[in-house]
Amino acid sequence: MDLLGKRDRPVLGRREIARRLALHPGQVRPLDTLLKRLETRGLVERQGGRFRARRGDDLVEGVLERGRDGLFGVRDGDRFLRLGELGDAQEGDRIRAQAFEAAGGAAAELVEVVAGARAQWVCRVARGQRGLALVPYRGRDTEALPVASRDLKGAELGEMVVAEVLSPSRKGRPAMSYRVVERLGFAGDPEADFRAVVWHRDLPTEFSRDALAEADALADGIVAEELQGRVDLRDRCFVTIDPASARDHDDAVFVEPAEGGCLRLWVAIADVSHFVREGSALDRGAWLRGNSIYFPGRSIPMLPERISSDLCSLRPDVDRLVLAAELEVDGEGSIRTAHFHEAVIRSQRRLSYQEAEAGMKSAEEGREADGFGSEISEQLGRLGIVADRLARQRALLLSLDFDLPQPEVILDDEGRPSDIRRAGRGPAHRAVEEAMLAANRAVAQALLDSSHPGVYRVHEAPAPLELAALGELYQTFGFSGSGRGKALDRAGMVKTLGEAEGRQQERVVHYSTLRAMKQARYAADSLGHFALGFDAYLHFTSPIRRYADLAVHRSLRQLLRRERGPRDGFEWASRIAIRTSARERLATTAERDMIGLARCAVMKERIGDEFEGTVTGVAEHGLYLTLDDPFVEGMVRISRLRGFFDYDRSRHRLVARGSRFQHRLGDRMKVVVASVNSQMGWIDLDPAPPGGEDAAPVGSGKPRKAEREGISKGKGRVRPKKKRSGRRR
To answer: Chain-wide mean pLDDT for the chain?
Structure first.
């Protein structure tokens, strides 16, 4: 269990387990018996033909089956958990579900389909034992699917294709043979990469006919009946501020003076709940997707474009229905009063972050921004002031502010990745964030005070062991944290993040602190948000792209209209929280997959080039390095380092045997791009030769017996060397 139960929960095949445990052939059969026994006891779960430690997140994994009452569900020991929504799952699929207590007894919410029947496969054409074969995307060459040359449809070695299984009844065909039905292009081609990630993560890309029909049937303009009972805010100078590439604009802000030196912040959010009625085909489609997914240059929206990019996009000079938060912020950044309205606005201007920053800077200098006009210039100046106030108040609450640069993929004229840069957070970006945080927090408190159900965004405190390890890491870097001998808390984290600002270890300290955190999730209970320091928090500001926000809008609307919430409000919110948390994790993984493919596309043209970067991760198998430019991450495998190293887990470093030399988090390093594997999303790096091109190859030298046999020594394990240790992998 020590091998399978590591933090990253590796998925290992029987042969790999036997190799890592250094078992001889006679011990393989007892290993099979042991794995079956562990699986029966619920300590190990099977994924395909491989194994890993059972999930520690309370998810139930099993086969979707029909119960005695005809309803579908999954078994958890002696319990049969019925499923309310099947999504795309079919009887016989292996699924993961989250159990919860419902009015009719134990039930479960579908999280994801682990394994099911595949009608088609997205594959790479590779070399097989008998000519060309098809390797499923993110699969290994050992998983190759057989294909006859006549069924390749002209596809070349390395090309990405869509394949389907041939009917076993066809004369002269083997039972498990495949044929190519569509050629997608090579890795790095926008369509090939998109189709590969969509297939691998089983993402829905088409809306149902009923959903599209409902969207098309919606009226273009606002009719008089829709304005009844709404507050008319069309005379206010609302503006939208988004990235220059944004396609939908679902939030707008306006700031005006109030009494006693206060500022009144208005945050208007597109009223998606007006158009997407609960239980409709549009609602069901949004529920199944859970959220929008954003890739470089394209997206998979939660709602059809008719809604997301038209009716609910707060375009300039067009009347739009919104739910608005009216917040009075005093000089200290505290929210004195909070009111909410069903309203109508007319945005005055669409601004990019860069344009808004220019306007904010002009306002600070006491002049009118070029091309903005006095009213918008005053708006941007007040927005900067109210954002500063809110930020100071968050600092008093010991809110953790992670300033981690995100990768921005630069596309060429054909939509192919050409570069990856750091996407910065400027003053305008931060100002909008502060406004949205304040609105989210105010709505959460309003639902709590009124006992209306809500889907809260919760973030629990890190586990004590994680905090202890993080405190040790801080001290390794020379930061005090909460002081020696004291348990690390949020105050210590804030202090360290401040001490690290501007220093070489700043990025690593931010990354390490973030990794020590628990994952934020949605819940029907308000459990607080540790990182932000808020007692109550939820997501209200993006109902176009997050179903949890749409649910919050519906609950707030019931509060404003003094309507009762659903009879089983807690169960209603629980089901939404479970589903949206799972879909959010899936979306994050898919977006990370696509960024990985973009990185590979950029770096495959730079194999052999030298770069400089920072060590942002240390593991027993090597170093993770983030390059300065382009902004990509790769790995220096331990077998490529000069000499032999032991892994010191507690201090996050690799220590050279027989010397004090070490590689640790935050170290700067020069590397050479050794290889790129687009199939797996890997970039392999080698340390740059110290003596130029004529230096001895990295990794050369005869390994000691301990390394050859994979014997652990010291605090870590050294990966066994291949016979040709100087050869690149």
So the answer is: 84
Q: pLDDT confidence of 728, banded at 50, 70, 90?
A: very low
pLDDT surpasses 70 at 10: no
Structural domain contains residue 725: no
Report the pLDDT value the prediction gives residue 710, as an integer from 0 to 100: 31
Tell me whether residue 602 is in a domain: no
Residue 706, pLDDT > 90, answer no
3-state DSSP call for residue 138? coil
Residue 168 domain-assigned (yes or no): yes
DSSP per residue over 460-528, as a string? PPPPHHHHHHHHHHHHHTT--TT-TTS---HHHHHHHHHHHTTSTTHHHHHHHHHHHSPPPEEESS---
Q: What is the DSSP string of 140-179?
A: -GGGPEEB-GGGSTTPPTTEEEEEEEPPTTSTT--TT-EE
Taking the CA atoms of residue 673, residue 674, residue 676 and residue 682 in that order, the dihedral angle to the nearest 10 degrees is -90
Q: How many helices (H) and strands (E) does the chain have?
A: 17, 35
pLDDT of residue 722 exceeding 50, the answer is no
Q: Using CA atoms, how far apart are residues 331 and 266, in angstroms rounded to an integer?
A: 17
Q: Do 79 and 132 fall into the same domain?
A: no
Report the domain count for the chain: 5
Whether residue 214 sits in one domain with residue 104? no
- Looking at the fold, whether 398 and 266 belong to one and the same domain comes out as yes
Answer positive or negative: Cα dihedral of 299, 303, 306, 309. negative
Task: Name, of 33-47, 497-511, 571-585, 637-651, the range with top average pLDDT.
Answer: 571-585
Residues 586 and 621 in one domain: no
User: Are 305 and 362 part of one and the same domain?
Assistant: yes
Q: Is residue 524 part of a domain?
A: no
Domain that holds residue 562: 209-454+533-591
Same domain, 228 and 346: yes
Higher confidence at residue 597 or residue 718? 597
The segment with the largest mean pLDDT, out of 114-128, 161-175, 365-379, 436-450, is 436-450
Same domain, 575 and 428: yes
Instruction: Give 258-288 pLDDT, tens digit per residue.
Output: 999 999 999 999 999 999 999 999 999 999 8
Cβ-in-10-Å burial (0-12, 13-18, 19+) of 662 comes to middle
Determine the average pLDDT of the residues in 491-498: 90
Per the CB < 8 A criterion, the answer to whether 593 and 200 are in contact is yes
Residues 577 and 472 occupy one common structural domain: no
Kindly state the tokens that stand for 531: 């990182």
Residue 344 has pLDDT above 90, yes or no: yes
Length reported for the chain:
729
Residue 594 to residue 602: CA distance in whole angstroms? 12
Tokens for 580, please give them: 């949206």
* Final residue in a domain of this structure, among 113, 133, 158: 113
The answer to whether 330 and 260 are in contact (CB under 8 A) is: yes
Last-in-domain residue among 87, 113, 139: 113
Find the mean pLDDT for residues 222-230. 88
Q: Using omega within 30 degrees of 0 as the cis cutoff, is the peptide bond preceding 304 cis? A: no
